[in-house]
């Protein structure tokens, strides 16, 4: 019994001593860099939001004359309130998921699986499940199949689509009835600024942070 316990301990010590110390994925530099860049992008995006009282100003509401007028209003209001609108869409999604806690837990688990089992898992640490080591290709294939199953073959996909459609409908309804004449748009402002730029920066941050880990698996 003593020798059976001593052998694994020696193997573990020699493995750790021969290479870098084993770190959980959440403690890796790549994951910390990802969180830092994501937080910075969120702060930059929210710093460009418009005052909420302008969004809900009842004196600036009127019925559009026709569909062309409604479409023009939606475009101008979206250019001005894009950060607020995207925040509103995120709130609708969050409320929808919070009202379905099981779906929220499944999505969080799926996200955690991608982050900690593949993207930010050190390449020198094989994935062991029930004593079997899984290669990176097997892990990636399993995550892709699991994602497709969750999104397209369960009620979670329809829940997300319904929440997005409701959010877009609210945004379009507000944009069509909000008179944009009192809104002053900066003509020199880049078209990709604001919260949409945050989305691009967040995606870039994720790609840059995960690139070393993914490249080492190719």
UniProtKB/TrEMBL annotation:
**Compartments (UniProt record):** Endomembrane system; Membrane
The ranges of region (Disordered) come to 1-22
Q: Does the keyword Transport apply?
A: yes
Example of a GO cellular component annotation carried by this entry: Golgi apparatus
- Membrane protein topology class: Multi-pass membrane protein
What does the protein in this record do? May be involved in both secretory and endocytic intracellular trafficking in the endosomal/prevacuolar compartments.
Q: What family is this protein classified in?
A: Belongs to the PRA1 family.
**Protein name stated in the entry:** PRA1 family protein
């Amino acid at each position: 019994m003593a020798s059976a316990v001593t052998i694994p301990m020696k193997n573990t010590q020699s493995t750790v001593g021969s290479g870098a110390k084993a770190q959980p994925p959440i403690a890796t530099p790549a994951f910390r860099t990802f969180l830092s860049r994501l937080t910075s992008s969120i702060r930059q995006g929210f710093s460009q939001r418009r005052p909420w009282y302008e969004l809900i100003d009842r004196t600036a509401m009127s019925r559009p004359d026709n569909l062309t007028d409604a479409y023009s209003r939606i475009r101008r209001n979206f250019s001005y309130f894009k950060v607020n609108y995207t925040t509103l869409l995120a709130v609708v999604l969050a409320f929808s998921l919070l009202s379905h806690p099981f779906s929220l837990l499944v999505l969080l688990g799926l996200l955690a699986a991608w982050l900690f089992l593949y993207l930010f898992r050190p390449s020198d640490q094989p994935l062991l499940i029930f004593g079997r080591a899984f290669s990176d290709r097997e892990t990636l294939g399993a995550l892709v199949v699991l994602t497709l199953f969750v999104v397209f073959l369960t009620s979670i996909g329809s829940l997300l689509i319904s929440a997005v459609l409701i959010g877009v409908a609210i945004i379009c309804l507000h944009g069509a009835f909000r008179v944009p004449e009192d809104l002053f748009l900066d003509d020199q402002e880049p078209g990709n600024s604001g919260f949409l730029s945050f989305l691009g920066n967040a995606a870039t941050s994720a790609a840059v942070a995960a690139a070393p880990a993914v490249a080492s698996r190719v």
